[in-house]
Design a protein that fits this description.
TIM Barrel; two-stranded antiparallel ribbon; 14 helices
Length: about 425
Amino acid sequence: MGFTTDILFGTATSATQIEGGNLPHTWSEWHKIGKISDDASPARANDHLNKWKEDIDLMKSMGLQVYRFGIEWARLLNSEGVVNKAAVRYYRELITYIKECGMIPLLTIHHFTNPLWFEEKKGFAKKENIPMFLRYVKHVVNSFGDLVDEYITINEPNVFAVKGYYEGVFPPGEHSMKQAFEVISNMAVCHIKAYKMIHKLRKAKGYKNTKVGFAHHIRVFEPKSANPWHKICVRLVKYMFQDVVSSAFYLGRFKFPLKQTSKVHFGYYSDFIAINYYSRSTVSGFSDGVRKKAYINDLGWEIYPAGIVKCAKEIYKIIPRPIYITENGTCDNNDSFLCRYIYDHVKALSESNLPIKRYYHWCFLDNFEWAEGESARFGLVHVDFDTQERKIKRSGRFYSEMIKNKGVTDKMYNEYVKPQKYHGGGL
């Protein structure tokens, strides 16, 4: 299998999940009240705050070409409007070194975590707080705009809202569908205004090649059976989980039940399509489901490689832009099927005839996996959390060779992919 020559391969991380440090933010509080399944704390994570150079050197040794990383809002702004100069120095050194090592940085501004001073004001649940987020965006661009051309404004707004405000398994732990849609509505306005602001600020300083998007978590939804009710539920769940998000964030069109909480106009608010793809949902009601005898990962999520192309085609029809797969990966605690997972998804993309420009594997290191803590391993690099020792996994070596060879040779396939099997029946 060969790849289109202009696809760049790399990996993705988020600040809260790797940096460590005892910061006043929502996930630190979530741990304090006992909401992490294995009681792991984000204060430990991967100690990337101190080991960042070692980690970037490891990326370089693997031949990674692009790297998506995040800024920790609670680190950059200790309190509302007060910039932490030490954090600015840290991130500037990090970004500079990423570039010196030959990788293109993609900066994520918001990835699931709010500083407590913002959360105490009800965060994205109140439209009055939108200017606070925009001031944070301005600080990010003013601090790092000379080093970074490409930005993700918000990561997975639908997951953030559903998990935090409807299912209650992410902070702040609410159970209100109405509030979840209010959060998505406000985040859409934040994205649109941030998109315009980033372009304006960088243009004023003479910077070129600015690219801004948001990372959209999308999945395939299919009915459990031919039952008409199942088919109706598919349309409703898909519409509420991702279709209204696509319309609002990409085009500025707020469809029911979203509401335009601040004046924005129709337009195209993404310079590239950023897709986070993991799985397919089998629907028989309004909760998530998994197809019987499906291939699954260690968290029970279905493995469905064809879905990554189906989702990319769907978004490309809405907004024809270059496509970045900003997250794709799976929980494989024993590294027993990740080579096959990567191969199957990248093969599907390579055969799609879509303008795929980037592929960011989620994730680089086994890390703090939100409510799962340290129990769910997604990394190309194994981490012993007690010693913080890093070791490239078999899947990491496969990924590195794949990049070097611009594809998968027969020898690589026979060594890495062929011996591996997914869990489940695969029906």
